[in-house]
Amino acid sequence: MNLQLAREQMVSQQVRTCEVLEDRVLAAMGRVPRELFVPPLWRSLAYADFAVPLAHGKHMLTPMVAGRFLQALDLRAHQRVLEVGTGSGYLSACMAALGAHVHSIELYPDLADAASYQLKQAGVRHVEVITGDAMSWQDQGGYDAVVLTASLPIYQSRFEQALRPGGRLVVVVGEPPAMQALLLRPYPGAKPAPQVLFETDLEPLEHAPRPEAFAF
Q: Residue 118: CB partners within 8 Å, gap ≥ 6?
């Protein structure tokens, strides 16, 4: 497989055609070797429109979803971003390629270790992977952006607290089949008005509250 050609086709035929038009995002995704972040069993599908399976029933974001997240985050050089759910480390690498300093939290130690190794193999700098539960994580905040790679069945404002005033939060909220990717810009003393970005379907964040099951 010509990996460079496959990467270019992913960007042009999947990501760009899904309304990701920011040149910086497209260039970053064109530089990051996605194949290094895909488990060996699935490496031949590294550049397919496919949610690659990971351990613990998790999945990589599809290239299209990753691209739309990156575009909504609007990251600039030296900005600080909190990523909830490291997964394979691919989105972390793309955010670093945009110049951000990434603090990434992963619940499962084996995924965190694998992501750290893959980031090192890809030569990615400015990404710190921490093992922990984001639903009980205590952080001083001050991030320019926060992104969740798993969904919240019920919206949790706790992640707004990690942002500096005017920062950006990208999160998928809801349950299948009615999940929406949202962009929020919280300001002190004001309730953030979410901007609906697109519809998608992501597995829920571990330990996040869920609606009570309906009973007759």
A: 36, 37, 88, 89
Whether residue 33 is contained in a domain is answered as: yes
The domain in which residue 87 lies consists of: 3-200
- Tell me the DSSP string of the chain: --HHHHHHHIIIIIIGGGT---HHHHHHHHHS-GGGGS-GGGGGGTTSSS--B-GGG-BPPPHHHHHHHHHHHT--TT-EEEEE--TTSHHHHHHHHTT-EEEEEES-HHHHHHHHHHHHHTT--SEEEEES-TTS------EEEEEESSBBSS--GGGGGGEEEEEEEEEEES-TT-EEEEEE--BTTB---PEEEEEE--PBPTT---PPPP--
Position of tokens 């945009």?
98
State the residue for tokens 């706790």: 158
pLDDT at residue 76 greater than cutoff 80 = yes
Pairwise CA distance, residues 162 & 66, whole Å? 21
pTM over 0.90: yes
> Is residue 212 in some structural domain?
no
Cα 191 to chain centroid, rounded = 24
Q: State how far the Cα of 31 lies from the Cα of 24, in Å rounded to an integer.
A: 11
Residue 216 lies in a domain: no
Instruction: Give the CATH number for residue 68.
Output: 3.40.50.150
Domain count, the chain: 1
d(CA 7, CA 71) in angstroms, rounded, equals: 18
User: For the chain, what percent of residues have pLDDT higher than 90?
Assistant: 87
